[in-house]
Amino acid sequence: MNKQDVNIKIKEAKICLEQGLLEEAEKILSTLQQNIKAEKLQLPEKQKKEIEVLIKHLKTKNKSDTGNINVAQEVNLNERYNQALVFMELGLCEEALVDFKKLILENYKVNDVVKKAIQCFNRLEKKIEICSYFDEILSSPNVSDIYKDLIRLEIAKVMESLGIYVKAFDYYKSIKNPQVAESIKSKLKLIAAKVKGGSKYSYLLEVCLTKEQLQQAIKRANKEDKSVEYVLIKYFNIPKEEVGKSLSIFYDCKFVPFSKEYKPPLDLIHNLKKDYLINNVWLPIYKKNNKVIVVIDEPDDFSRTDTIRAILNSYEQSLILEFAVGIKEDILDLIDFYLGDVEQKLQVEFKSTNIENIEDLIDDVEIETEETEEDITISESDSKVVRFVNKMILDAYNKKASDIHIEPSAGKKVTDIRFRVDGVCQHYINVPNPFAKALVSRIKIMSNLDIAERRLPQDGKIKFKHHGKVLVELRVATLPTVGGYEDVVLRLLHTGKPLALTDLGMTEENLEKFKKIIAQPYGLILVVGPTGSGKTTTLHSALSYINTPERKIWTAEDPVEITQEGLRQVEVKPKIGLTFARVLRAFLRADPDVIMIGEMRDEETASTGIEASLTGHLVFSTLHTNSAPETVTRLLEMGLDPHNFADSLLGVLAQRLLRKLCPKCKEGYHPSKKEFDSFVAEYGEEQFKELGIEYNDDFILYKPVGCDDCGGTGYKGRIGIHELLLNTVTIQELIKERASTERIKEAAIKEAKMTTLKQDGMLKFFQGITDIREVRRVCIK
């Protein structure tokens, strides 16, 4: 036996000790001592000391009550371990944890048992309780120092993943094994930086960025709704490589920039919805065997990474996920590049079918004014009629129209077809009346209406499919008009993802106030305004903001226009008695946290909604009123109890939609001082001072012009204006007193600093988003 053989035997003894195999360790050391003595080996001091330490450690183990495990005890521990595993399989993790603790205190397979115990806490979603569970074990004298270090290391990893860096640092720091301590030195430095208040920009602040620049970047990022990283690269000329390095250091993972060279796993991304990935900012970009690399903007967002693991493992078992960090905008570009734009593809497919211009489809049926309609026979099944309807719906969809109006005229013998775009009707095309009759019949067939019935109004719906996919859903309403004709109105329900709250056009002050009230656990929140003012969009944006796995959210809508994962949505059907009030009563028996009622149409619905908000539920609803203060008096006039209403109300958000000036053709001008003063008076002189806007030679306002891009209107797109009334103590008292609308409005402006709809609209006028004519059109009293 030589010195190398001695080293091997020492290592074998150590391994046996670590695994709790005391008898095997004792045999190895006993044999080793005998061989050394027989062969009279002269060992170096280091080896002698190692053997002495191991023997001493072994004796300590044997002296302890749990140390010397005989065969019967070994069998008993094996049975306990197997029993704990069975508990885990059955989902009885609490019971399994009791057994695992006993096994660790017996020094039985500690490495495996610790990992199994952590898995139990993962399944129970009680990771934060890991510390108290293991601290009791760490204080026990029965557990060896080697195993205690192993436990500290595992707990530290969990705390780090949760973002609890102080605890992670403490556990890493308390590891005594010098080899392990050396291996985690760099990790300790990283966590120490986070504990001391370091950020993901700490590296940049050291090498190429000042604190002032960072503050400017953060402010600009918030204003433009972009990531700080994007702003640093675009406006502050910080190289993307440096930004990536800073993120990589902070998150302790690889940085992934945008590239067209990645090979994302098609078998996984095929099952993922593009809208979902955009909302949650992540994408699998690489897969080899069972290892998957996922790029995400915040790898330390534990709730998201857990969800990603669950989703991907539901498609394919036993995947090992590695998270890389990316810049938000890069990830969105990756999603767009690799998943493509489904709607755009559909439009391209449609264009490739060589359909004629819309005018070409009606050329063959143009008639002279002296001809009678009976001279021309056109069937609703005629190919030109079918293609015309398809083209008309697609054109409306592409123009983002909300409605299609088909309006026959007995006098002119032509039918005017108009689209409502950005809240205003625009001419689309004129067609001969005989063609329009076939057109109406075709629409009736598509919406399962009676084509023979022309004397009574009818309602229906169309699921418009293109190349086998539902592109848009339409609500159809027919109305008999003079001359034996029928008008048809088709409402396009643009289903899709909800807008982010930041995209609704709220001022920063209103946005923060609104976020605060929708985060409350219970109460009543109302969004009010006329039809087509964006109430449903705002409600779904609010629900999306609070839509987490911890909440149960029920909605009753008429119709369901926007769908969201995580929401349980019900479409009311008054014809069969499924009204808002009935659905709301059913919701109260369905364990809700949040309820959204499409509209408070009557006293019964309003009373039930208030009852729900007073019994621990957050209730959202809408009402057709002109302003936030008016909503309060309207509900009191319905017959609501003023005391219950005052206690339940959190806030009322009144809103309208303004057309935005076309960015390509809007024209700036310098107003006269007289004109400026009239705008100030219209806004309110006292409140205007708070805006900090002053008249000078550089003051510019904008007006519409018109170009091809906006269809000659001068406007393109819409933005919301808002009036947010918060239920303060003063307003509560006014509600209980049944005070007038004016008194409630005065209190809201004075106490809660409420900005009126007109003021919010004028603010957007001063910002160059719209013009004064549009503000006055929408905010008419």
TrEMBL record:
Keywords: ATP-binding, Coiled coil, Nucleotide-binding. SUPFAM superfamilies: EspE N-terminal domain-like, P-loop containing nucleoside triphosphate hydrolases. It comes from the Bacteria. Residues 588-602 form the Bacterial type II secretion system protein E domain. The keyword ATP-binding applies. Pfam families: MshEN, T2SSE. The keyword ATP-binding applies. One of its GO terms (molecular function) is ATP hydrolysis activity. Gene3D superfamilies: 3.30.450.90, P-loop containing nucleotide triphosphate hydrolases. Residues 22-49, 348-375 form a coiled coil. One of its GO terms (cellular component) is plasma membrane. PROSITE patterns: T2SP_E. Belongs to the GSP E family. This is Type II secretory pathway ATPase GspE/PulE or T4P pilus assembly pathway ATPase PilB. It comes from Desulfonauticus submarinus. The lineage of its organism: Bacteria, Pseudomonadati, Thermodesulfobacteriota, Desulfovibrionia, Desulfovibrionales.
